[in-house]
Amino acid sequence: MSFQDKVVLVTGGASGIGGATTRAFAKAGAKVAFTYATSRDEADAIVQEFAAEGVKGLALQADVTRPEAVTEVFARVERDLGPVDILFANAGGLLKRSRCVDTSLELWQQAIAINLTSTFLCCQAALRSMEPRRSGAIVTMSSLAAFDGGGFGAAHYAATKGAVATFTRSLAKEVGPLGIRVNGVAPGLIGTRFHDTFNTPEGRAAAVEKTPLRREGTPQDVADAVLYLASDHASYLAGEIMQINGGVGF
């Protein structure tokens, strides 16, 4: 797959799945911008890699739950690299586990902001540029939790990831006639800092045992799927939520 001269924006693109995808797009010839919240060292490492390989890229520290920050990100990308052709709306996460009965309204709203609002704002900004050009591809980040309810104490996270999946399908119907494809990925157990933080070795081992392929996924597994969905090879896919989980639930 080649993305020569395509302008790609990856939100949350400095580490984990986002970092793997940022690097994968760059290796495929794209001009890549990525946002990060706090991972400055990881962002700097990617920028240095880009410089060494002659890749044109851009790292932007931004809170993509804020409309003004998203507007600034897209303006910077367009000024420095060109209008965004491909968006991977990856930013999000689980702040902490909390039983529903103990979940504060503040935590609930924070989960909505980092997972759903950030996706909405970035898709909206991308479409303002893509619609006049009648071309573009968007990939969103859902989760296995959207389909199985997630782990213990993650109802707030699962709810937002389910909403991302529904938003993705709805948006695909809305902008497909304009030549813009919208799809999503829904990873399962991927060996990243997320599971280092919110899972246990025992929990991960039990999940692997239930996985038909008998292993954890890697960030590259997800990155490969994102690149496929964003490429011309997936030109007849729209509204698809690709589950990347080693066969769980099938």
UniProtKB/TrEMBL annotation:
<keyword id="KW-0560">Oxidoreductase</keyword>
<dbReference type="InterPro" id="IPR036291">
    <property type="entry name" value="NAD(P)-bd_dom_sf"/>
</dbReference>
<dbReference type="InterPro" id="IPR020904">
    <property type="entry name" value="Sc_DH/Rdtase_CS"/>
</dbReference>
<dbReference type="Pfam" id="PF13561">
    <property type="entry name" value="adh_short_C2"/>
</dbReference>
<dbReference type="GO" id="GO:0004316">
    <property type="term" value="F:3-oxoacyl-[acyl-carrier-protein] reductase (NADPH) activity"/>
</dbReference>
<dbReference type="InterPro" id="IPR002347">
    <property type="entry name" value="SDR_fam"/>
</dbReference>
<dbReference type="InterPro" id="IPR057326">
    <property type="entry name" value="KR_dom"/>
</dbReference>
<comment type="similarity">
    <text>Belongs to the short-chain dehydrogenases/reductases (SDR) family.</text>
</comment>
<protein>
    <submittedName>
        <fullName>3-oxoacyl-[acyl-carrier protein] reductase</fullName>
        <ecNumber>1.1.1.100</ecNumber>
    </submittedName>
</protein>
<feature type="domain" description="Ketoreductase">
    <location>
        <begin position="6"/>
        <end position="188"/>
    </location>
</feature>
